[in-house]
Amino acid sequence: MISEARDKTVASDLVDAVVARCRSELGDTATWLNPEGYPDGLALCIIDSIWSLGVRYESHVVPVLNRYRAIRREAGAEPSKDGTPELLSVAHALGAGGGFADALKNHQRTSTKAGAPLKADAIIQVAQALLDAGIASAGDFRRAIGENPKVIEELWRATPGQGSSDIGWRYVQLLAGADEVKPDRMINRFLSESGASGLSPSESAALVRAAASRLNVPARVLDHAIWRHESARRVRRHKVVVR
Description:
Radius of gyration: 18 Å
Mean pLDDT: 91
Helix content: 55-70%
Number of strands: 0
Order of helices and strands: HHHHHHHHHHHH
Shape: globular
Number of helices: 12
Distance between the termini: 31 Å
């Protein structure tokens, strides 16, 4: 098994297999894209990462993001610059969790358990916790995870729906501009078909990091290249639009 610590050695044969498949199926590394994310928009990072877990991105997350953007632009604001103060102001003006969910036209919950909080409520909770910790912008968030990653991770994991898996935690960092990996089902399918199956999210992320190092690209770039490749395969099968 692969160590969960980033500084431990990943099994060389698995890295070899993933690297070989990347070279044969993903094309020249020079053509790979660096995912844009929201380097100036912590609000969009939070909304995207909270809403993306357990759903199809194009059909559930993109409409929510677009509705939030529309709300802000109608108010004469630029959503790509919003931080936690702006996100909280919008949510409370709309009536907090329920009203925010109404405006976004999405009442999905953080889990399938009866009475689980709305994702809209989870967004408000984590935005307030981040703001209370002095994190108002994406730049603040990047600095905080560089200086006190465990503290910020614990804060994030206290959010409904975020405690049992580190996928959301990794994804919000990636969206904010960190060199991270989101080991979702797309990434795991690519790894599994490369011979690395049954991995935990941390193990999958460690393997992608090791392969990226071997390929001399940032981990976030390899993550995105794999995601696009697997999404394109899915499009061909199911005609689902990629992110």
